[in-house]
Amino acid sequence: MNAPFAPVRTTVRLADLRDPDERGAIERYVAGHPQGTPFHLPAWIAAVERGTGNKALVLLAERGAGAIIGLLPLNEIHSPIFGRLLASTGFAVDGGLLLSDGEDGTALLAAAESLAQSHSCPTIELRGGPVSDARQGWALRTQSHCGFVRPLATDDDVQLTAIPRKQRAEVRKSLANDFAVTVGTAPEDRAAHYAVYAESVRNLGTPVFPRALFEAVLDGFGDAVDILTVRHEGRPVASVLSLYWRGAVMPYWGGGTWDARRLRANDRMYYELMLHARRRGCDRFDFGRSKTNSGAYHFKRNWGFEPEPLSYAVWTAPGSDTRDADPTSAKHRAQIALWQKLPLPVANRLGPWIARGLG
């Protein structure tokens, strides 16, 4: 008589990111997964840990002899203002559960809940991935943010005419201005980008992220990241740090100075990035996420991008209040207005301490 078939157990454990073999296995799993993103990679969550001090934690679901069947990368976010949470992943627009075909993620979600409670984090936020709102304690958000992706054109002229008429007129005006456009990751590129970005987010009423976060991402992603900067009369007026992933350019942290709007430097920046990305071999422009109906949301629509709702899942521990770190909420409106009035040196000094807890 044949022995009864013993089902292969699924186990969930924390990965050891200090082990290069472990990191390599995770990288291969993400690279081979159709929903894999840069934000699932060890390089991202390790950069967040180095740049902000928010610990990197990766839950692995395995079956048999260590075969990965699911992945949940997390950063443990600490904020004296907004509280504590596990984010998948920290400072990212994507992340969340990554599962092999046929897997339901139940074991990984249960492990994440236990991990959150043991680390005194009353909230888990997953930016993407399959999570059912039928699971107790979890709520799905499908209307709060949208993503924007469209193909790149075949050449420079077609790229310009592919932009809707009103926005194309702004780009044409920017092309008449005397700008110098550079791309790189040298110290001068990094310094120019951070100075522009810090002023840009202050003007929006948002604390600037620590410079160490940008440095860690630049160092961790090698030739899959760069900075494009637009200068006017020698001064940087617009700059964007972009990631490159599977044929897509992802402008991630970008902004402009007060003069950028008058000079239309941001319009020039994004157009030049489209051209640069195509020359790098990209075929898609991923404009990232924006709050639904926000100014950035409508700006991207003006460029011809159609919004696609994103699915986020949030778990709140029993008896805990829902975390509110939404900069558009009524609770934070007064703080934003005050922050916009701060002198830039003061905002740059205080901002990183606050922003490292935003997640």
TrEMBL record:
<dbReference type="InterPro" id="IPR017469">
    <property type="entry name" value="PEP-CTERM_FemAB-rel"/>
</dbReference>
<dbReference type="InterPro" id="IPR050644">
    <property type="entry name" value="PG_Glycine_Bridge_Synth"/>
</dbReference>
<protein>
    <submittedName>
        <fullName>FemAB-related protein (PEP-CTERM system-associated)</fullName>
    </submittedName>
</protein>
<dbReference type="Pfam" id="PF13480">
    <property type="entry name" value="Acetyltransf_6"/>
</dbReference>
<dbReference type="InterPro" id="IPR038740">
    <property type="entry name" value="BioF2-like_GNAT_dom"/>
</dbReference>
<dbReference type="InterPro" id="IPR016181">
    <property type="entry name" value="Acyl_CoA_acyltransferase"/>
</dbReference>
<feature type="domain" description="BioF2-like acetyltransferase">
    <location>
        <begin position="168"/>
        <end position="301"/>
    </location>
</feature>
